Amino acid sequence: MSGRQTGRPTLEEVAARAGVGRGTVSRVINGSPRVSEQAREAVGRAVAELGYVPNRAARALAGSRTDAVALVVPETEARLFAEPYFLDIIRGVSAELAAADKQLLLTLIRTEQERQRFEQYLAAQRVDGVLMVSVHRDDPLPDLARELGLPTVLNGRRSPDEPASYVDSDNVGAGRSAVEHLAGRGRRRIATITGPPDMEAARGRLAGYREGLAAAGLPVDELLVATGDFTEEGGRRAMTALLERRPDLDAVFAASDVTAVGARAALRAHGLAVPGDVALVGVDDSPMARHLDPPLTSVRQPIEEMGRAMAAALLRQIAGEEAEPSRLVLPTELVVRESS
């Protein structure tokens, strides 16, 4: 077999010589652990035989790759850095992408102008793939990315029949376990503060709340349901409204720990003790849950694990290893503390 006469060996030639896919070669070169020893040895032999020299810029140009992934967060800087959820997602995503030698581009979208600018950025194919956090029901970005042929993975779903790949947690189970716990402690007038109604996570937790009431033989009282927005101020407002409507409530399931912090402040302002007068449960099991006074019972989401799983799914798409959308729902776990 005659050797190459001109030009430098390409990643595709290494893949052909090794008898593996292009993505496998890329992972071997980048030191990824997600490769079998047999494939690693085959790629090593092919690299040596062809005299292939990895070159990041050359690989990106030859494969029309940028080696960059965008993580889109449609929130303000203040909320991004104030809420542990986003930071844990970023930590998980960053760790997985770093192992694959991909650059993470954090993109905040706060206005319609910023959204349009980012759509133009995507159309210019300046990233290899897109990760999206905090998606709302009418968010057009996932569909646009898919139309452009860009690998895309969401954190959560826009609806139960989400067409894009996603990684989510068991939101229905989270609401159900929280309410069953409260009912098991003898609470009978259990209220809830939801997340935004246009987010599937919020709708799932509300559905779980209703399931938990039914399982405990308790009626659903719409006066005990208040809409929040996953923020502390939203939790404070919603708790105040609940106390005006049903001052006899004896427990609250807040759809996030941050919401529970706001609810706790409103309860304290009304002279109510937690858990003596009102038991309180949140979702996320964030550090603030442990440091609240009293420490907050919370439903733990594997947030950093979700970030890693999102990035891993995206990397599989980029490597051409995943033809169909992937759907992963991770379990949640109730962590009982003094607030309930």
In terms of topology, how is this protein built?
Layout: H1 11-18, H2 22-29, H3 37-50, H4 56-62, E1 68-73, H5 77-82, H6 84-99, E2 103-108, H7 112-123, E3 129-132, H8 141-147, E4 152-155, E5 165-169, H9 171-184, E6 190-194, H10 200-215, E7 225-227, H11 232-245, E8 251-254, H12 257-269, E9 279-284, H13 287-291, E10 297-300, H14 303-318, E11 327-330, E12 333-335
Parallel strand pairs: 1-2, 1-3, 3-4, 4-5, 5-11, 6-7, 6-8, 8-9, 9-10
Antiparallel strand pairs: 10-12
The strand line-up of the biggest sheet is 2-1-3-4-5-11
Unreliable segments of 5+ consecutive residues = 1-6, 56-63
Question: Helical proportion?
Answer: 40-55%
Strand coverage percent: 15-25%
Number of helices: 14
Task: Report the order of strands and helices.
Answer: HHHHEHHEHEHEEHEHEHEHEHEHEE
Specify the overall morphology: elongated
Distance between the termini: 74 Å
Average pLDDT metric: 89
**Largest sheet descriptor:** 6 strands, parallel
Q: Give me the Rg, rounded.
A: 24 Å
